[in-house]
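Regression test attached.
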Amino acid sequence: MAVCAFSIFAIVILIATELVSQSQMSWSKVGFKFFYKFNVDPTTNLPLFWDPVNGDFYALPFLYGTLVSSLVALLIAVPLAIGVAIFLTEMSPRFLRGPLSFITELLAAIPSVVYGLWAIFVLVPLLREHINPIFIAVFNNPTTVKLFGWTGLVGEDGLFGGVNLGLGLLAAGVILAIMILPIIASLTREVMSAVPHSQREAALALGATRWEMIRIAVLRNARIGIVGSVILGLGRALGETMAVAMVIGNAAEIHRSLLSTGHSMASVIANEFSEATSDMHRSALIEIGLALFLVTILVNGLARLLVWAVTRGTPARVN
Amino acid sequence: MGVGIEVTNLNAWYGANHTLQDINLPIPANHATALIGPSGCGKSTFVRCLNRMHETNPIARVTGSVRIGDMDIYADASPVEIRRRVGMVFQRPNPFPTMSIYDNVASGLKLNGYSNRRALDEIVERSLRNAALWDEVKDDLKKKSGASLSGGQQQRMCIARALAVDPEVLLMDEPASALDPVSTSKIEDLIFELKSQYTIVIVTHNMQQAARVAEKTGFFLNGRMVEFDSTHKIFTNPSDKRTEDYITGRFG
C-alpha cells in the first residue's frame, strides 16, 4: 500500500525532472525571453513567434491562446454553472435533483475528442452561420464603432473583426465552457449544500424572499468555495488539449479578434510533437509542457485548498 | 408595540404526521407566553406556524387561522411580510458568519431597503442595547465577524438582529437551550425587559425558565394543547392531571 502511495509522488517528481531536463536546451538558449520575445518578418513586417523551419521558437501566442480561450470559457460557464447549482440546491423539486445532478456529472465523463468532433460538426458551423454574424452586426456596425471605437474592442480591429471562419478562439472558448460546466456546477452545488440549513432559516425568518435568502445566506457563505470551483474549472480549461486542438485553428499568431485562429499551449504540443525533428523544436515544445505543468499544478492546488477550507474548515463554530 | 395573537383550529402536518391538532390559543399582547411540554409534543412546530416558517419545509402543511393583531397571516399577507412583523430567535445561534456584527444586526433592515447610514447606525445601536450586548461589542462592531463572539453573545446578537426590524411579535424557540447558565440568565433577564415592548412567545423545556419569565404558560402534549393558563396557576394548581404529572416530573 505504502508503495502505491509513494509511487504517486514518484510519478509527479519523474514528470517534473524529465520536463526540466528535456527542456534544458531551449531554456539555456533563449531563457525567459521564450515567453515574450518575437522576431519580425523582414518582408511582411509581421511578428514571427514560432517558425520551426527558420528556427523561431517563442511561446507567446500559445500563452495568449490558452489564456483567452480559458477566459472566454469561464465567462460563459461560471454564470451558467452557478445557475445550475442554485437550481439544484434551492429550487428543484426533490425527484428531479438526482437525475439532474447525474446528467450534469455525466457530461464530465464524455471523452474530450468526442466534444471536439461535436464542435467541428455542430458548434463551428453554428457559430459561423448564426452566432458570429450577430456579434459582428452588433460590434462592427458604424454606430457602435462611433460610440465605443475608443475602447479598441469594436470594429474591424476589435473583438469580432477579421474573417469569420467559425474555427478560432471563440469556438475553443465555447467548447471549453461546455466541458468545464459540469465540474464547476457539481462542486458549486456541493459547497452550497454544505451551507447549514440554519443559515437559510436565519435569512427567511428576517423576511428575506427566496432570492434574498439565496444571496445573503447561500451565495455569501459559499463564495470562497465557489471561487475554488471556478479555479478548478480554470485548471481544467488551461490543460484541455484535444477538443481545443480540433477547433482553435492552429495558427501561432496573436490577434485581438476572438474570431481569429490561434493556438494553445496544450494544442501545439499535441499537434507538433510527432513532427518535431530538430532538437530545438522538441526542447521548446517540452518547455511549453513544463510551463503548462507548473501553471495547472498551481491553479489546481489553490482551488483544492479553497474548496477544502470551505467544506470542512469553518462551519464547526457557526453550527 | 406588540399585538395579541389569536390562534383558531390550527392543524399542522409533516408529511402524514399530524403534528398539531386543533390548537386554540389566545396569546396576550406585550406579555411573555411560555410553551412547555416534552420533546416532540409540537411546541416548536406551533411557533413555526406563527411566522409561517413551518411551510418552508416542502412536506409541511397547515390549516386553521392565526390572527396577529388585525391580520390573518394565512389569508391576508405573504410569508415575507409576516416574517418582517414577527421576529424569530432559534435554538442555536445562527449568525451570518461572513458578516460583521454590525452587518448581522443590520441585515434585516437592509432587506427592507434601509440604506440611510445614520438611521442604520442608530437602529443597530438601539437594537444591541436592547439585547444587552452593546457594551461588549461597541468597539469592534465592524471589525469582528458575528461568528467570532461566544455562544451567548451570538444568541444576543441574533436577538438584536430580530429586534432591529422592529417586529410586533418575537418568537423564541428554546433560545437558551444551547447556552451555559450565565448566558441563559442573561437571556432570561432580556426577555423580562423586552416583554413590555413586544409580544413574546417562548418555547422551552426548562420549566423553571417558563416560571421565571412568562405570565402565561401553555402545556403541549402529543400535538395537542392540554392546558393554557396563567403561569402561576399552571405551576401551582393545574386543572389537568397530565399537566400536573408533567410539572411534577412524572414523565417528560
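Expected vs. actual: identical. The radius of gyration of chain A is 23 Å.
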